[in-house]
Design goal:
There is one protein chain. By secondary structure, the protein is an alpha+beta fold. Helix content is about 50%, strand content about 15%. The protein has 5 helices and 3 strands. α2 packs across α3.
Amino acid sequence: RSTDMLPEIDLFFENLPKALRPERVASILGLSIKTIYDWHYRQRERRVPLGLFVKFNRSLFLRTDILKQWITSQNPSLT
């Protein structure tokens, strides 16, 4: 897959809400829900950015701005 076929990261995140449920993030990124919860419970071990996870009314959410920054830092070709 060539890099020109990759979607521009800004366009990818443009229409997403500021926070997403773990199930939605798993679906978007093609990961299992277990992986997302593993990131939450083992943040330091997995080097997941602080502030990525937020709890609101006992529900867990991921902040899309921090998720975007983390993905682009892991994949410089997306910038």
